[in-house]
Amino acid sequence: MAVVTHPTQPIEGQKPGTSGLRKKTPVFMHRHYLQNFVQSIFDAIGGASGKTFVLGGDGRYFNDKAAQVILKMAAAGGAARVIVGQGAILSTPAASHLIRKRKADGGIILSASHNPGGPNADFGVKYNIANGGPAPEGVTEAIFARTQEIAEYHISDGPHVDLSTPGETTLEKMVVEVVDPVADYATLMEELFDFGAIRAMVQGGFRMRFDAMNAVTGPYASEILEGRLGMAKGTVVHGVPEPDFGGMHPDPNPTWASALMEEMMGEAAPDLGAASDGDGDRNMIVGRGIYVSPSDSLAVLAANAHLAPGYKAGLKGVARSMPTSTAADRVAKELGIGAYETPTGWKFFGNLLDAGRATICGEESFGTGSDHVREKDGLWAVLLWLNILAARGEGVEAILRAHWAKYGRNYYSRHDFEALPVDDANKMMSELKADLPTLPGTEIEGLLIRAAEDFAYNDPVDGSVSRGQGVRILFEDGSRIVLRLSGTGTEGATLRLYLERYEPDSTRHDLDPQEALAPVIRAAHELAAIRHHIGRDQPNVIT
Ligand code: G1P
Ligand code: ZN
Question: What would be the CATH architecture of the domain defined by 3-180?
Answer without folding.
Answer: 3-Layer(aba) Sandwich (3.40)
